[in-house]
Amino acid sequence: MISVSSLLTAVLLSATSAVGMLPTTESLPGCGEVNVFMTGLPAYHPWVISLGLDPAMVDRMLREDAARIVNMGYNLRGGNLVSRKRERTDIFEVAVFGPEEDYDRILKEQMCAVDWHGTGVGFGLRAGQDPDLTIQFEDIIAGFHERAPGAPIMFNYNAKTFSWAVQRRLPLAANCTDSPGKDLASRRKQALGPPSDMARASSSFAKHAKPPRND
């Protein structure tokens, strides 16, 4: 028969072991030692607008959150790659792309030559109710597994919460306010913009978008 004291001893030992398994600040990476790659749909992409979101607000939130990630001490590729709007013309940088692009090639170009510790996919791509977006999402996840094996794949719940996901999954050893990370600039400076790319995006949207319901 097992005594009460034996059970209490077992519980205390289990609790002590669990505490010992928790990461300590000595085992966590320091400022500027973690590389993060993020991708998703451009803020001004027709699929994002179809979700009822304000593209200007999404663009601003993405930029602010990207800056926050770098200021928290992480090296980020994606922060300077969100969409820009200039003179009412949408210009898409290469780390954000829709299903109309050769995204597998772009992903390969953007992820090569860096040891990625974490990756992420934006909410717009995950929320799109379209087969092309679902296929793109699946292909990007497969690409992450291939090009960053073992690295956690993170998800935001709106345009300003990638920083929340990164900090939750990849904590750092210290506050990096005085030692921010780096903005890992795109490996390709050419912008993906109008007229051809925006036309392809609009064409893809028009091809698959469902007409509004009247009920």
Overview of the molecule:
This protein is an alpha/beta fold. It has a single domain (29-207), classed as Rossmann fold, CATH 3.40.50. Helices cover 43% and strands 10% of the residues. The chain contains eight helices and six strands, in the order H-E-H-H-E-E-E-H-E-H-H-E-H-H. Helix 3 (55-71) packs parallel to helix 7 (162-169). It is globular and about 45 Å long. The model is unreliable at 11-22, 79-94, 188-202 and 210-215 (pLDDT under 50).
Query: Which stretches of 5+ consecutive residues score pLDDT under 50?
Result: 11-22, 79-94, 188-202, 210-215
Order of helices and strands: HEHHEEEHEHHEHH
Instruction: Tell me the major beta sheet.
Output: 4 strands, parallel
CATH architecture: 3-Layer(aba) Sandwich
Strand content: 5-15%
Estimate the helix proportion, in percent. Answer: 40-55%
Going by helix content, strand content and strand pairing, the class is alpha/beta
Supply Rg: 21 Å
Widest sheet, order of strands: 2-1-5-6
What is the tally of helical segments? Answer: 8
State the domain count.
1
Average predicted local confidence, pLDDT: 76
What is the CATH class designation? Answer: Alpha Beta
What is the 3D shape? globular
Which fold does the CATH topology refer to? Rossmann fold
Distance between the termini: 67 Å
Fold topology:
Blueprint (H helix, E strand, L loop, with lengths): L3 H18 L13 E5 L6 H5 L4 H17 L3 E3 L6 E3 L2 E3 L11 H9 L6 E4 L1 H5 L3 H17 L5 E3 L6 H8 L26 H13 L7
Parallel strand pairs: 1-2, 1-5, 5-6
Antiparallel strand pairs: 3-4
Helix pairs in contact: 3-7, 4-6
